[in-house]
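Morning run. Coffee first, then this:
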Amino acid sequence: MQPIKLKFAMTMRLRLLYLFFLVPTMVFGQKPRARNIGIPFNGGTGKFNAITDVKGVEVGYSTIISGQGKNVRGKGPVRTGVTAILPRGKNNNPVYANWYSLNGNGEMTGTTWVTESGFLETPIMLTNTNSVGVVRDAVTKWFIKIGWHKDDFWFAYPVVAETYDGFLNDIYGFHIKESNVYEALNSATTGPIKEGNVGGGTGMMCLGFKGGTGTSSRVVKVGDSTYTVGVLVQSNFGKRRNLTIAGVPVGKELRDTLDYDFKAAPSYRQEGDGSIIVVVATDAPVLPHQLKRIAARVPIGIGLVGGRGENGSGDIFIAFSTANRTAFQRKDFVKVEQLPNDMIDPLFDATIQAVEEAIINAMVAAETLEGINGNKVYKLPQHAVLRILKKYNRLK
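And here it is:
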């Protein structure tokens, strides 16, 4: 009887562990995430472990997946989308912001005025390389449709960033339309958000496997106050051999596993080509020059998972603060609250940690995807990753 009892006890323990990891996922309606499957990270997260843990921030998506087989320009297959990040939801109340570029082989519109003025006055939109223009124009039309600006005389420079999905998507078919932009903006919500093959991240690849959209957050104490830092990434960068998870050289261990299957890849493509866009949100009272410093810490988190800022990669980041709600004024003098520079280090740490986890969350959530001409990118083999982490004594 003893072996039967032991087997029963082990079975019940496994079931309990399964429920422990699965229940949070079921409650929030998400796929299992990196922490759920046992990957260790530093720092404590907010309720949803998402950029939406920063109160007021909303995220919405439009995802297009259609067709298969040979690429017929203008018809597909289509593997693309749009992501919308609204700092204060659908309220037009500009936030302090700034941006930083590690490697500029990419685009983020509107940043000249963000730097000059210190404010982000529009949502942040993420899409594919060839759809920046239509997304920018559609955002301006959306402003008119919903009455975003209350006066008759206004101008706006929408912030739209991109990464290249042309290895899976009919990128020269220009499939992103105004309706997709409206869908992403109008569907934006707080709470848990989807990851992986969604929104602008739908057709993206990362560090040798399927990439896409990922998010994470950190809650930190600064003096007597508690603040949240949230991150969202559109992850499409890196070489497999550099993939590092929890400090372990996973990419080297998986170097011959599930390679990209490109049946019609452009001859000029080099390993590491791609991009990553990172959006950092916080409710800490930091000013534009401090947000520049926060955005400049993003590359450290990217480096922890294996990013190197390769020549063919557009690595562009923007950070904003939802504090100082009355800071944007046209006529009145204002008083603002500022965190001292000597107390900013916890926000740097939180940014680095959240970026690292958001990228891995994108890879864990992403599914294998076949696109144009039968090109295929495989999902991260989670069981193999856990086996490697166990080999290096890095599992929880």
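The chain is about 30% helix and 25% strand. Good start to the day.
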